[in-house]
Amino acid sequence: MNRRIAIEPAKAYRLMNHGPTVIVTSHHGGRSNIMSAAWSMPLDFNPPKVAVVIDKSTYTRGLIEASGEFVLNIPSRALARLTVDVGNESGADVDKFAANGIVVGAGSVVRAPLVEGCLAWLECRLIPEPHIQQTYDLFLGEVVAAWADPAVFDGAHWTMEEGGKRSIHYVAGGHFFETGDAFDVGAP
Amino acid sequence: MNRRIAIEPAKAYRLMNHGPTVIVTSHHGGRSNIMSAAWSMPLDFNPPKVAVVIDKSTYTRGLIEASGEFVLNIPSRALARLTVDVGNESGADVDKFAANGIVVGAGSVVRAPLVEGCLAWLECRLIPEPHIQQTYDLFLGEVVAAWADPAVFDGAHWTMEEGGKRSIHYVAGGHFFETGDAFDVGAP
User: Fold this and answer.
1) B177 touches chain A (CB under 8 A)
2) Domain named Flavin reductase like: which ranges (chains A, B) (predicted)?
3) Residues B109/B54, Cβ–Cβ less than 8 Å
4) Chain B closest-CA separation from residue A175 CA (Å)
């Protein structure tokens, strides 16, 4: 498992603030699963919360509803192909970890695994809201632990640089944008 | 107002799929307002829906709740300074359009204005969900019309290129990432 540093709760929103595509991992009853999700966002600062859309057709959804837990993993460009592939297979049919040779590590609070090679990881506890889960496939979670690769996040800020690891933003098909150049417009 | 093309409902999610920062405009009772929102995402394909976090402290929130309408505007890097500024002023204190010299155009369905110089615009009708609005500041909307600048979106795909107009991804303070290089990993 790659090196990782713990991120304090008040800074965890920054891992997702720029809108990267995420990989969702889940675990229940001895089964783990992995899927990609283009639709996620932070929902609150501290305690940090997140929102993510999990379709009814997914195997992940049953694992999250049964365990009350999930992890949002933020992949780098090197994992873009995997991000597409795990979004198009179903954990009901195949063990996607074995089929794709995915290496995982353990989180500190939840049992869903952390995907090796990602840039950051948010361990989440489901905030049960059955009406919006059923009506909109919308799932809310409280971030109970957060981690980042110190090569790209210094504990408070992203340090992604040209030619280095970058997060990714899914469009459609096999098409993505890479997270681009950082810039600063000065203090608010 | 810049040139714009109508985007068919089934393609509207692509305007936000990559997680850009948005500017929220609203209008009610003769008053318009404008604020920025880092936390938004698509929620469904067709009819397209969106989710956005609108804090209780904002003047925008009252206008949206009263009118049942809002617009998500997707700014380019040229509007990054404005995006920070309208996120730090309150429409309760100042007419932010006049104070910032903001040029607007009219939408086709909702009365909230479209901000000149943006790359795309999603006219939305609020889907009332009082519990999550109150508890999480989370607002859902159905996209009732969508528009894009044909210089950067061809009706189905973003065509943003190096050196041209790019969407932006807010981090914190005055800090952003630009939407970076497009890449393709092949068919799913």
Assistant:
1) yes
2) 14-159
3) no
4) 4
d(CA A178, CA B176): 14
What distance in Å separates the CA atoms of residue A151 and residue A12, rounded to the nearest whole number?
A: 16
State whether residue A75 sits within 8 Å of chain B by CB: no
Cα distance from N-terminal residue to C-terminal residue, chain A: 38
CA distance A153 to A174: 27
Nearest CB neighbour to B180, from listed A49, A180, A187: A180
Whether the CB-CB separation of B155 and B149 falls below 8 Å is answered with no
Interface test with A, best of B22, B45, B169, B178 (most A CBs within 10 A): B169
Asked if B150 and A47 touch (Cβ cutoff 8 Å), the reply is no
Collect all residues of chain A within an 8 Å Cβ-Cβ radius of residue B174. 184-188
pLDDT in tens, chain A (188 residues): 679 999 999 999 999 999 999 999 999 999 999 999 999 999 999 999 999 999 999 999 999 999 999 999 999 999 999 999 998 888 888 899 999 999 999 999 999 999 999 999 999 999 999 999 999 999 999 999 999 999 999 999 999 988 899 999 999 999 999 999 999 998 76
Q: Under a CB-based contact definition with an 8 Å cutoff, are residues B137 and B143 in contact?
A: no
What is residue A60's three-state secondary structure?
helix
Here the tokens at position B107 are: 């939408």
Contacts of A17 in chain B (CB under 8 A): 38-39, 169-172
Q: How many angstroms separate the CA atoms of A128 and A132, rounded? A: 9
Instruction: State in words which class domain A5-178 has.
Output: mainly beta
Residues 17-36 of A with CB under 8 A from B: 17-21
Q: Would you call B18 and A171 a contact, using CB atoms and an 8 Å cutoff?
A: yes
Residues of chain A found within 8 Å of residue B177, distances taken between Cβ atoms = 18, 158, 160, 179-183
3-class state of residue A89 by DSSP: coil
* Lookup: tokens for B12: 């509207």
ipTM of the complex, rounded to two decimals: 0.96
Strand partners, B108: none
Task: Characterize the bridge pairing of strands B138-148 and A138-148.
Answer: unpaired
